[in-house]
Amino acid sequence: MTAAAALLVTVVAAASWAADKADDAANTAVPVLIGDAVAEYDAGRYEEARALFRLAHEKQPTARTLRGIGMASFEMRDYIEATRALAASLRDQRRPLTAEQRKHAQALLARAETFVGQFSLKLSPASLSVFVDGRPAMLEGDGSLLLPLGRHELSVRCATCSPNERQLPVDVVGGEKKSLELTLALATAPPATADTTGAAAAGGSVPTLVGGQQDTAGGSGSGHLWLVGAAGVAVVAAGAGALWWRKSQQEINECRSMEATFAADCTNESDLSTQRSAAIGTTIALGATAIVTGVFAAILWPGEQSAPAASSVACFGGKDSVGCAFRF
């Protein structure tokens, strides 16, 4: 064997010996940490005990270090952490709990769960971001949410939704296990064309205007043209009023749905009803104006015109909207 080869063997052996010694030291340190953690726990210094249990768990994670973390957290009244750690200790198979330790962990877990609320979240769309009291929520492995006792402000956010945020107050009395459905509507772009078929599929109300023929032979007066233009403007404005009407009705329905689903008060229903009434009145008034103006335009249309004045039709289709059709 050459000197270089012998040196290489020596270096490798030394490195292996050093690694074994480091592992032995780490393994020896864990029992010491656990012993210190138990001593701190017995002395009532629960924050120090939890810190030591966590350090031991980082070095050598086991079901028993998780149980220690859960016990200390319970005494600190951190029932969320206690619930998580104790439940994990019952599942972990690394140095599993003895029968007595398991029985104790189960009893303590049951007590901890009486001081938290467990909520199963149903998010639509699924990409919603969940916040609790203005901070990102920490969801459990199964997607559920644990909340401590008291009132909390639960909110969901979505950059591509309209509105892009919705808030819900949640009162936790302890021990409840509920399901919460949190929904935001995706924002939709306005249609490029007045396609009544697409509008009906989307539940919207799209005005459709069909303009009539004009006499190109000349000789027509200007008064009837002004009336026709005014009628067209009234029709378009009535369509906008119908859309306003429908939007107000949708907001009322959403407000009532939130009240029924989340037990949250619909505090602005009165204002929304006032807006809806104003939208209804505006739509009816503009529709009547369009009818009257169109009738006068037909009466004043020049008699010498070889071809009769063309038709004018306005239609508004969709849920909670008004439909109108006129022809002269």
Write the layout of secondary structure elements.
Blueprint: H1 3-42, H2 46-59, H3 63-75, H4 79-91, H5 99-113, E1 116-124, E2 129-132, E3 135-136, E4 145-148, E5 150-157, E6 165-172, E7 177-183, H6 196-201, E8 206-210, H7 223-262, H8 269-300, E9 313-317
Parallel strand pairs: 1-7
Antiparallel strand pairs: 1-4, 2-3, 2-5, 5-6, 8-9
Helix pairs in contact: 1-2, 2-3, 3-4, 3-5, 4-5, 7-8
Describe the protein's architecture and organization.
The chain has helices at 3-42, 46-59, 63-75, 79-91, 99-113, 196-201, 223-262, 269-300; strands at residues 116-124, 129-132, 135-136, 145-148, 150-157, 165-172, 177-183, 206-210, 313-317. Mean pLDDT is 76; it is low at 7-15, 17-22, 196-220 and 304-311. With 328 residues, it is α+β, with helices and mostly antiparallel strands. The chain folds into 3 domains: 3-113, Alpha Horseshoe (Serine Threonine Protein Phosphatase 5, Tetratricopeptide repeat), CATH 1.25.40; 116-183, Sandwich (Immunoglobulin-like), CATH 2.60.40; 196-317, no CATH class.
